[in-house]
Sequence to fold (250 residues):
Amino acid sequence: MKVKTILVSQPEPKVENSPYFDLIDRQKVKIDFVPFIHVEGVSGKDVRSQKVDLAHYTAIILNSRNSVDHFFRIAEELRFKVPDSMKYFCLSEAVAYYLQKYVVYRKRKIYVGKRTFPELSPLIKKYKNETFLLPTSDKLKPAVPVILNDLNIEWKQATFYKTVVSDLSGLRDVFYDILVFFSPSGIESLFENFPDFEQKETRIAVFGNTTVKAAAEKGLIVNIQAPTPETPSMTMALEKYIKAVNNSKK
Fold:
């Protein structure tokens, strides 16, 4: 079946040059963006209950823009003045760039990884005498604590925000040719909102091995997968599939 409509389970991109908009123009498909999950911050009281004293830490590990927002939100709520000497270890350039929302970039000690925790870990290891705080959501990849423990550093993970299933009741009678997922939480949200969901003719696109596993556990057939060597991004994987299906003579 040809592809005409796609639902991406994330917020609509805010940049005009998003590859999704290029995909719409090139392949003449309709793409809707609906976040299947959203983030809610926990209170300063909840952070304190995790035995976290912000003054104890000399370095912060930031793995997303959410972690940046919620670290500074909690600092403000607890009336903690973040010292200029604080070191920031950012998972990627995008996270580091976002940090400028809260600090004067050139006046801070900021260390930037490429994209993953294994790539960031050598930078952290260089500063093993620091005391590290990792502010995250309630859903942390199991590999992260293993990597940090292997570095033999003093560190603590604390939940500063939670991943919450969004209300998707407005989609109950809406059907798409492709559903796109980026995390196991998105798959979880689909079935929490629609326990009787049946895939039928709907194609499923997923990003990452953990999302593939979550889809399989729910009995879904994955039709489109990224990243791969040939299609490192989701938009590239979608375009390759759409070209093959929509240009077919069948």
Observations:
- DSSP finds nine helices and twelve strands in the chain.
